[in-house]
Amino acid sequence: MITEETVDELAARLDDAQRSVADTPSLADTHPMTIDDAYAVQKALLARRIGRGERRTGVKLGFTSKAKMEQMGVSEIIVGELTDGMCVADGGTADLSRFIHPKVEPEVAFRIARDVDVDSPDTDTDITACVDAVAPALEIIDSRYRDFRFTYEDVVADNTSAAGYVIGPWQPLRDVSDLPVRLRGENGEAAGSTAAILDGPLNALRALLDMARRRGFALRAGDVVLAGAATAAIPLTPGVTTCEVAGLGQVGVRCV
Ligand code: OOG
Ligand code: MG
What pTM value is reported for the model? Predict the structure, then answer.
């Protein structure tokens, strides 16, 4: 366990790295952390953003696909939080100078329609019944760690590398368990299926409910949920990047 003071100090280090667009070495190297510590740092990091006037808009899951787990050498999902400061409109512009070494991932987003009770251990809660819409999405990840190298605890503390997200047109909730996905950037592309996301993104929602209960994440009406990448991430480069999820639609961002 690290002290409350250290939690604040590590959150400040990550916050400064993001704001000054300068990477930082792994925290875990110098400050061995438990997973509980890492989530405490993440919480303090979010509190700093909220303190500057950002509004929380939802949550994101990470490492829900085998490709991502293999790319990052980990084996358990992680959860981070999203704010309006990270949101880019579909077809909008993202300024690459805000990021250290950004990558982009093709994702599926869900919209929570009514508050989910995360305090009761009621195992019958059907999280999918609390969701009313689904959309193709892009996530911009930008680890604050040097060379994108981090331990599992490091990446949890760093709000799971969350840096930006773009949500395509919302559609009424439907079966999205095995839809072809294509990510196209100016200098790279990746293809896969939504089935890569825990054998179907609805399973990501179920895993999220479990994490929300264990880790105290709120799930409120209007929240966006990013279910996790369907392929490995590719570098985010100048020009247009799109994600198409067959049967669901397309979402894009222009980077300058
Ligand atoms: C952590 C974020 C992973 C996903 O969709 O799996 C993630 C990272 O790879 O830096 O967002
Ligand atoms: Mg992601």
Answer: 0.96
Pocket of ligand 1 (CB under 6 A): 62-64, 68, 72, 105, 139, 141, 143, 155, 160-161, 228-229
Output the pLDDT for position 123.
72
Number of folded domains that form the chain: 1
pLDDT in tens, 196-227: 999 999 999 999 999 999 999 999 999 999 99
- pLDDT tens track for 136-160: 999 999 999 999 999 999 999 999 9
- Tell me: pLDDT of 124 over 90: no
CA distance 171 to 50: 29
Q: For residue 81, name the pLDDT band (cuts at 50, 70, 90).
A: very high
Please report, for the domain that includes residue 157, its CATH number: 3.90.850.10
Instruction: Report CA Rg, the chain.
Output: 17
Residues with Cβ within 8 Å of 54's Cβ and at least 6 positions away in sequence, in order, are 83, 84, 85
**Probe target for ligand 1 pocket from 161, 165, 194, 211, with the most ligand atoms within 8 Å of CB:** 161
Pairing assessment for the beta strands 249-255 and 93-94 based on DSSP bridges: parallel
Q: Which structural domain, as residue segments, surrounds residue 53? A: 4-255
